[in-house]
Amino acid sequence: METLSNVRADFSGGAPRKGGMLLALVIARYFVYVLAAIVLLSMAVFAGFMVLVQSGVVYAANHAEEHLPEVTAELAAGDIQPQDLPSSYRWIVLDEAGAVVSSDMDEQGREKARAAALEGVSVVRYDGLGGAVVQDTVALPGGGTCALQYDYLPDFASRDARDALPNPQTLMGALLIVLLVAAIALIAVRASHVIARKMRPLADAAAHIERQDLDFAVGSTNVREMNEVLAAMERMRGALDESLHARWAADEARRRQVTALAHDLKTPLAVARWNADLLAETPLDEEQATCAAELSDSIGRMDGYVRLLVEASQTGAAGVRLGDVDIADLAAEVERQARQLCDAHGLTLDFSCALGGTLRVDRAQLARAAANLVDNAAEHAPAGSRVAVSFSEAGGAVRIAVEDEGPGFSAGALEHGKERFYTGSPDRNAASGHFGLGLSIVDDVAAAHDGTFELSNGETGGARCVIEVPRG
Q1: Which of 230, 235, 319, 461 is most enclosed, with most CB atoms within 10 A?
Q2: CA neighbor of 218 nearest in space, from 13, 3, 5
Q3: In Å, what is the CA distance from 35 to each residue of 26, 29, 30, 38, 193?
Q4: 137: phi > 0 → left, psi -120 to 50 → alpha, else beta; which?
Q5: Is CATH 2.20.70 the right assignment for the domain spanning 62-152?
């Protein structure tokens, strides 16, 4: 048996490294990337905004206040008309009576501007961010006054764009948010790929262990915490390897024992078969002839069990020879063997099968498995009680159920009853003729047919064993 030290010697080069970068630094690196993206994108958006200002597409936030003296002077001198004012101003013209003559404001804005002009107020209102909307009044040369309003926000140079769009500062802020979201998403995708790559050795090691393939090299990364996890997984791999090799050695020893037992049974079985055949050739009355025939038949089944034990001990599950079997013929064979076993134990057989058609199975093995269950039930059922065997169909599979009126399975038997050499109690051992193989062989036969074998207890007591095999 290959030892753990040999395996580790083969793969010592793949042992996980103990050093590496702290995971906190790996995560912090991406926070730095986010901060750098915020700074760079903010600078880029601001640079773009300055280009728009320099090209005259957008007025700076202080444009109106900076040019107010010259604008008011030109209005007072009649050099420009209110309609010619830059778009950074909103205006309203009032006559001597204070009535509105013209304006580029909406109705609500006109009323506020008129009220402020009549009251001589210079600050009309404050916006939601605390910025002031300032108003200045200019006497026009033709009579009347013009009230100019402006704020400290950038504006589009085009009056149409100013009235149709949010102010440039809002648009630039929205653009910055969109770019930041996109940048953070890209950084997150990059981070997920990097972290997934660093975790790949962990996923690969888990996949190997799941397949019970323990002869592999546990990888490593450049992250210290992950290397610690990988080192722990390496230790677990080594422990599992030792455990599996120990289990395989124990299974091999058990297989050798079963093979030796089966070999030792061949000689007494051959003698018993020869004597049964010799007895059948002597003059016998009808009852004696029936007993001799049943004896010969039972010896034949025992010989088949021995061959099945040899196959099971060599492969873990006897090889099946599948063929299309008539369900009625299979049921008849199971009923014949079950009735012999029940009669031998003084039990009543309750048999039922209402199925037709064919089933692709190994006829001999499946019949032996069912007979094995009946023999097990007969051994535990009280004298004079009933053993029920039924064939039914469930979900496209044929179900063979065997039930008795005995004490049922213990909790330990329900959990371990299908394991080889499990007998359930110390007095049921090889010396008493019990080897703990019956239910294990049934489970192997069911698995070899891609079916299932389940143990349970009936609602009113007694054990229930069910073999279920697919039709196809």
Answers
A1: 230
A2: 13
A3: 15, 10, 9, 5, 20
A4: beta
A5: no
Q: Where are the domains of the chain?
A: 62-152, 223-318, 320-470
* pTM score of the predicted model: 0.49
Q: Which residues contact 393 (CB under 8 A, 6 or more apart)?
A: 355, 399
For residue 46, the SS3 value is helix
Q: Which residue did the predictor score with more confidence, 219 or 160? A: 160
Q: What is the rounded CA–CA span in Å between residue 117 and residue 99?
A: 11
Question: Residue 96 has which token pair?
Answer: 């001597």
Q: For the CA atoms of the chain, what is the radius of gyration? A: 47
Q: Which CATH architecture has domain 320-470?
A: 2-Layer Sandwich (3.30)
How far is Cα 351 from Cα 472, in angstroms, rounded to an integer?
24
Average the pLDDT over 267-283 and give the result. Answer: 79
CA distance 383 to 399: 27
* Residues in the chain, overall count: 472
Q: Say if residues 124 and 135 touch (Cβ distance below 8 Å).
A: yes
Q: Which of 29-33, 241-245, 336-340 has the lowest mean pLDDT?
A: 241-245
Please give the torsion angle defined by the CA atoms of residues 244, 246, 252 and 253, in that order, rounded to the nearest 10 degrees: -160
Intra-chain end-to-end CA distance of the chain, in Å: 40
- Secondary structure (3-state) at 48: helix
Contact 94/111 with Cβ under 8 angstroms? no
Strand 348-353 to strand 386-394: parallel, antiparallel, or no bridges (unpaired)? Answer: parallel
CA distance 217 to 208: 10
Which H helix or E strand runs over 353? strand 348-353
What is residue 25's three-state secondary structure? helix
Coil vs helix vs strand at 106: coil
- Does 95 have pLDDT greater than 60? yes
- Token pair for 292: 């001799």
**Cβ-based neighbour number of residue 449 at 10 Å:** 24
Q: Class of 223-318 per CATH?
A: mainly alpha
Q: In whole angstroms, give the CA distance from residue 410 to residue 13.
A: 50
- pLDDT grade for 410, boundaries at 50, 70 and 90: confident
